[in-house]
Amino acid sequence: MAAQQLTIIGAHMSTYTRTIRMALNFHGVTYKHIPLFPHTEELKKYTPFGKVPVMLLPGHPKPVLESNVMRVYIDGTYGSALAPSTLEQQMKMTLLISILQDQLFPHVILGVTKVRLFAEKKGTPEAEIVKRLEQPLEKAEKIITYLESLVADTRTQFLCGDQVSWADLYLYPCMDDLFSLPEAEKFKQWAPTLLAWHGHFKANNLAQETISGTVAETRASL
User: Fold this and answer.
1) What pTM does this model have?
2) What kind of fold does domain 87-220 have according to CATH?
3) Strands 7-9 and 54-56
4) What region holds the GST C-terminal domain (predicted)?
């Protein structure tokens, strides 16, 4: 299943797909993007798990799964400029990404964002959606306030040092979507440093080049 050129498979609204696309754009890599949604029949040709993104590499017979593996490939192939220069900042970056993957994504992106979007699509009354999100938001507060505590001493426009890192590329798509929801005022109160960082990063070319089709862009037009 080797591709003729590097190919990224994944929906525009997938936060992990956006992360990998931003990383490739950062390095100036030309790639093909196939915007497939998770768990579709067409996606089954590439992965038995239904998750995106999937990366196809020229000369590589098997699809590359999991964004962490793609991160290793990108750093190893195009250089480690997205890794902070100091050990302390590298540890901070790894912790932020780990919490995002273990806590923020399953409990907040899936538990709040996806629940709201699905309910709205079904025409569920707003009062019922708010009620349904009460417990997920309690969990979200613990996660987001902890993330805020990790970056509260940030004095630059990036999360881990003076330049963009994988921490920015992983966290930005999630926070961009969350700050577009009706619950955004809660998130902003819980995470003022992340809100300020989001405002800076929003103007970055990496964010602008990948916003099309995201939850954040879609909700901005409502």
Assistant:
1) 0.96
2) Glutathione S-transferase Yfyf (Class Pi); Chain A, domain 2 (1.20.1050)
3) antiparallel
4) 86-222
